[in-house]
Write a structure and sequence with these properties.
Chain lengths: ~450, ~240
């Protein structure tokens, strides 16, 4: 153990002090909340500006007491109402643009007559789209709000006129609907929408995203740590020390995993701050109560399965990283080879983030089931909503077998004879390719 | 089995990389307390022989015995007693020299006291002084080399395998390292090294072998070789042998 701890210490210290990795660890913590703050500030100020400068041009073709009441009501709700006088719609739009209005409201002739006869009265709204910014949407939402309140006011007036003794609210919305959810045969005192918001965010997006980040980080760290040994010519010396190749491999796996976990915790912190900033934005604030206390607790065996599958997934990707690093003569080559591994790792995470596995084409389902990184996501998604599926349970021993195979192959690769011979072969092939290219160039020039 | 006092026995060693035969039928014997030099031009097969002795590479055929153990079947039993200094051995950029030495010492020694003693010895051999506390990325090529030699010798190996030990060092530090190697041998160690510096080999080595295109062309004590070939130094002797 003493030898292993010494090797792990070397890995962690060397990686943690590498500025490239240091930046990778720290940047998400600073960048994500900053990004959230900047986006919420920018979006918030756009919406506020749209609402504050709400100017409505009105073409009143009815010119009656009720149409006038609508205008007064709009003004009392904060809108800057300007009247336009035009014979047709195009002229009215031109006038509204001249006045710098956000919208043109056209009250058609017969507005009052329709209302007093209990018919729907026609009002047309033309919204000026200045740009594809949230400011335009903010103005539209504000005008709609003013009209909705006015509509409610007129509705109350009409219902009271018919029968002053009844409540207009009951007439308008006679059902008192209370919705509950049923989860694993248990009634949860919240509507499905609230559950969906929390579960979707927690289990379907956050967990796959975190696992994706963890996988990418760990494979990068492991590949970089091993490729640096080749680049700096330290691996050869390391392989002559009185340690087994399993010690070297295990030290690389542990060192990379420790840093990847730290990186993922920092990323999660940054991500949560980003979401907090975004969700604090006016209009994005969903009145979602904390339902985690109401949810049925996942069975302990599913938590054990989740932990085991997570460990296997980390071991699997770290081994791949070490193998890539061992085969690479330098970090640049390792980074190029990493692309081949990272893309297949990313696909299942994205597939499961936005859809159900059962609805995917067979080829994509097979790809998801083939990768050990898929199983923690499957378990996380299943454990609260449904019992863990048979395929997922079978996937654990399969992941373990595949991970052991990859670990064994990687440890074989760390045998100096094989590694040096493969690297020698790769160098020889590179030299031959260069030689052939030079000969081609010479013959072309000749 | 090897003869009495033999630290290294190599018989009919062949190493091929695909079509290339790097070592072709080499036989050597290195006795305890010797400084044995492998001399030859680039690509002669010196580094391949040293890597096989260091248990890094496997022979294609032939027999290699180090300290009484088969270098192929018992590599794990050999490693605690040897040290290998590669020609282009690098360093961990983000560790300090002292941190690196202590990590290596803890791999070789079971007690912290022994490990600390080895580190102090290495600091003295390297001559790095206070710079040993700095990160190794700030070291010059010569400083890195001195640290690696110190790392290789601090564990008091029974066999130190040094590939071009003084490459990249200035004359003062090269002289210091030669003295360290001699002291190591006086304290009971054995050294096998390769070098392009014939003066250094003549000064350091008790016996040498001329290697060319994977073959041992000549073997013996430097002075005996010079006398036998009727030349004035080892460099002339090498040119004489290779030119035959």
């Amino acid at each position: 153990m003493r030898k292993l701890f010494s090797l792990v210490e070397k890995e962690v210290k060397d990686l943690l002090r590498d500025p490239r990795i240091y930046i990778g660890l720290v940047v998400p913590v600073v960048l994500m909340p900053l990004l959230g703050f900047l986006m919420s500030t920018s979006m918030g100020s756009s919406i506020e500006a749209g609402v504050e400068r709400l100017k409505i041009a009105v073409l009143d073709c009815d010119k009656t007491a009720l149409s006038n009441a609508l205008l007064n009501l709009s003004m009392s709700l904060g809108a800057d109402v300007k009247m336009v006088d035009a014979a047709d719609l195009d002229t009215a739009v031109g006038e509204a643009r001249k006045l710098g209005s956000n919208a043109l409201l056209v009250i058609r002739k017969g507005f009052e007559n329709d209302l007093v006869n209990f018919r729907k009265a026609s009002v047309e709204l033309y919204v000026v789209m200045e740009s594809m910014s949230l400011g335009s949407i903010g103005a539209y939402t504000a005008v709609e709000g003013v009209l909705a309140l006015s509509s409610k006011f007129f509705s109350n007036m009409l219902i009271s006129k018919l029968n002053p003794s009844i409540s207009p609210d009951v007439v308008r919305d006679p059902f008192n609907i209370s919705t509950r959810s049923i989860l694993k045969d248990k009634i949860i005192e919240v509507p499905p929408q609230v559950l969906f918001n929390q579960l979707l965010m927690g289990y379907s997006i956050m967990i796959p995203l975190l696992l994706l980040m963890l996988s990418i980080t760990v494979v990068q760290f492991a590949a970089t740590a091993t490729a640096v040994e080749n680049e700096e010519k330290t691996l050869e010396t390391l392989l002559t020390f009185p340690v087994t190749r399993y010690d070297i491999l295990l030290a690389k796996l542990l060192g990379s995993s420790i840093l990847a976990v730290i990186g993922s915790i920092l990323f999660t912190g940054g991500f949560i701050l980003y979401f907090n900033n975004m969700l604090s934005l006016s209009g994005f604030n969903f009145p979602v109560e904390d339902v985690s206390q109401l949810l049925p607790q996942p069975p302990p065996e599913s938590l054990i399965l989740l932990t085991v599958s997570l460990l296997l997934a980390i071991l699997f990707v770290t081994s791949l990283g070490v193998a890539i690093g061992a085969l690479s003569s330098d970090v640049r080559m390792a980074n190029s080879l990493l692309g081949v591994v990272i893309v297949p790792i990313m696909i299942p995470s994205f597939l499961m983030m936005y859809g159900d596995l059962d609805t995917l084409p067979l080829a994509l389902q097979l790809l998801v089931y083939a990768l050990p990184t898929s199983y923690p996501i499957m378990i996380a998604k299943d454990m609260t909503m449904t019992p863990i599926s048979f395929e997922t349970i079978i996937g654990i021993p399969y992941s373990a077998a595949l991970t052991v195979l990859v670990l064994y192959a990687t440890s074989m690769l760390l045998a100096p004879e094989k590694l040096l011979t493969i690297q020698y072969g790769l160098r020889l092939r590179g030299a031959r390719r260069r030689q052939i290219k030079e000969l081609d160039n010479q013959s072309t020039l000749g | 089995m090897m003869g009495a006092g033999s630290i290294v026995v190599v018989r009919n060693l062949v190493k091929r990389f695909g079509d290339l035969t790097a070592v072709d039928g080499v036989s050597l014997k290195i006795e305890e307390g010797e400084v044995f030099g492998l001399i030859g031009p680039n690509g002669a097969g010196k580094t391949t022989i040293l890597r096989i002795m260091a248990t890094l590479l496997l022979p294609t055929s032939g027999y290699v015995n180090i300290l009484g153990y088969d270098a192929v079947k018992e590599a794990g039993r050999i490693r605690p007693y040897i040290s290998y200094l590669a020609e282009d051995a690098g360093t961990y950029r983000n560790l300090s020299g002292r941190e690196y030495l202590y990590i290596v010492a803890r791999i070789y020694f079971d007690s912290n006291t022994e490990a600390s003693r080895a580190v102090e010895e290495a600091v003295r051999i390297s001559g790095l002084g206070e710079r040993v506390y700095d990160k190794m990325k700030t070291y010059s090529k010569g400083m890195k080399r001195r640290l690696q030699i110190a790392r290789a010798l601090m564990t008091r190996p029974k066999l130190a395998i040094l590939d071009e030990p003084t490459a990249g060092l200035d004359v003062f530090h090269a002289k210091h390292i030669r003295e360290v190697v001699i002291r190591h041998v006086k304290e009971g160690g054995t050294v096998v090294l390769s070098s392009h510096n014939m003066l250094e080999v003549e000064y350091l080595c008790t016996r040498v072998a001329f290697i060319h295109r994977g073959h041992v062309l000549f073997e013996g004590e430097p002075k005996a070789i010079i006398n036998e070939l009727g030349v004035s130094n080892l460099e002339e002797a090498f040119i004489e042998v290779v030119g035959r």
